[in-house]
Here is the input.
Amino acid sequence: MQYKAPLRDMKFVMHELLNSTAHYQTMDAFSHIEADIVDSYLEAAASFAENELSPLNMSGDAEGCHFNDGEVTTPKGFKEAYKQYCELGFTSLTADEEFGGQAMPMSLNSALSEFVGTANWSFGMYPGLSEGCVSTLEHHGTDEQKHKYLPKLVAGEWTGVMCLTEPQCGSDLNLVRTKAEPNDDGTYKITGGKIWISAGEHDMSDNIIHIVLARTPDAPAGTKGLSLFVVPKFMVNEDSSLGERNAVSCGSIEHKMGIKASATCVINYDGAAGYLIGEENRGLKYMFTFMNVARIGTSIQGVTASQYAFQGALAFAKERLAFRSLDGAKFPEKPADPIIVHPAVRDMLLTTKAFAEGGRALIGYMSQFADTVAKGEGDARKYADQMLSLLTPIGKAFLTETGLESANHGVQALGGSGFCVEYGMEQNVRDTTIGCIYEGTTQIQALDLIGRKVLGSQGKLLANFTTVIEQFCEDNKDNDEMGPFTRPLIKHVKEWTDLTTDIGKQAAENPEAVGGAAVDYMYFSGYVTLAYLWARMALIAQTEIANGSSEQAFYDAKLKTAQFYFAKLLPRTTTHVQRIGTGVEPYMSMDVDQFSF
Here is the structure.
């Protein structure tokens, strides 16, 4: 499938829904950014994604990465595309100017990342991992580390990776065993192995900088004993030239269900030289300074899946002829009607469209809070941090799960063609499945939402957001046209609060109740969050239509998609409420040995 970037809709989100120019004016660091600057970046990224990355998506999937005696080669065309990516300045977008960066906001970077990711998610993994490495060093590295590594990382000449997972531990980092033994010269000897390291080894950059979680000899047990280290693939000399190979090697690459053009590596550290970041035993804290931003990156994958599915299914549905409309032929000059006339097909198309455009709005909304956390001050920064803490697990879990649902709709809409590789829909399912897993599975994100963020804050973080929704409804209470949106929103906000109270009461009697309710609570939260954003988009569309906009068709489609969301998708919350109401007992009543076959 040839990808076409949704430029008009992205500009709608950036300029009309979220008023990015006014948002940037609230921070000195971004106050120079006008709408035309935003648009120039969007247009450049759209062109690159469409013309350079999209043609490599299916071929990269078919070829995959190659492993030979510790060396990894990316699919044909990836190195050349990465060079262009660097030349366009995309690797330096959000980095500090001191190290060659452009110091642009996260919200702009998120928009560009969607275009890149929808065109070719595997490609986007390589520079995407570098962003976490750069962020870690910017926030916590010593001055020497920053000047040694950041200029090359920011320019894209080197890439970076985050190395957490080990064979015996995935999300439970209490179980990390990699050792870091101090040397007399102030360095550390890193010994151990990491698995599932995306972009851990490849041929697109001259050096790869590993950010590694490890334990020093006298560290306390659990996560409190984790420290963070810089471990370069090649040693770096004082003049930033490359020295000898460090004791870092790639043992193998994974044979995966999807994202096959992204090298997922087993990395071995055999007494490699490492350099402590910050203080010992504070590694996990340092990593969490950018974890919300990293999880926004994963949330974007859900949006890319929905957008890709919608585009592929739409093109097919307009051309594929099958049967007649039940109320009479819509295209009597043809032997059958195109399948887009059938309600069942429209259901799939509108569902993918609603999740893509609603998800795009949520990514933008979250990313603006990330901007303020990065560059804001005082109460505004504190509030943004609280809002981002609540919205991150919702965005990560809900958008990736609905992205996977959309990807499946993409296959189904194409029928047998969707099951075949040449249409790209089955690849979308394979690539997207990982989004529900890495950066914390859906189930872990759901536990984080209800356990740490909502109940753990005594409801304060949730109240921050429900107050925003209530104020929107209050502001539009006299607008009759908004009634079909604001009335259900108010009902669901009250239900959200009541659900939270009920789960808290259940948990007081049985702590397992939190785990039993978590996933359904996440889905409920996700549907209501998107409903709020769709209501805002509906208001804009109504206003533009009433004002005689020259883009009547665009705004009419936006309004009708909002109506579809409220009529057909928001009611799914009813099932989740009922499931929460039955408690945890149906999950726990069976003894472990009864799970047999």
